[in-house]
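batch_manifest entry 22 of 60
target: Type 1 glutamine amidotransferase domain-containing protein
source organism: Virgibacillus xinjiangensis
requested by: lab member K.T.
priority: normal
notes from requester: please return tokens only, no post-processing; we will run our own comparison against the previous entry in this batch. if the run fails, retry once and flag.
--- input ---
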Amino acid sequence: MRLVDSKVIALIEDDFEDLEHWYPVLRLQEEGATVDITGKEAEKVYTGKYGVPATSSVALKDIKADDYDAILVPGGWAPDKLRRYPEVIDLVKDMDKARKPIGQICHAGWVLISADILNGRNVTSTPGIKDDMKNAGADWHDEPVIIDGHIVSSRRPPDLPSYMKAFIDKLAGQ
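--- output ---
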């Protein structure tokens, strides 16, 4: 249990990709991390693309980057909603400025694009937003996982084992 003292924000909104939320949350918890599922409202049930629910434990307005060690952005259609919340953009910018691990998979790159933190960074995502990532100044690669400093990016659900190994290693300081 390498992450016993770690606190992680797991952003949530309706239409998240079920595996891209739950697999990372459960892997982090297995490593001992505290994971706060964070949505626009606390104690709200959000529904994934395939119907799997997730209940937020904390509201965005109550989160401060200084209190956390890392942040995860799920894929699915949730990122298109999440990036519209100023609180999410501020959190991602603050985590980036502090060089804390930022995990993004699939369509989650949209949130990092809106936070304007991808210029000159090596990343991957679902190929469906490759042009968006490149237009934001990122160097896009078609690889299961890309680590660029504190940003860990991945493409899609089949890449989850590689993604979470890299993210957990980064959070553990390895």
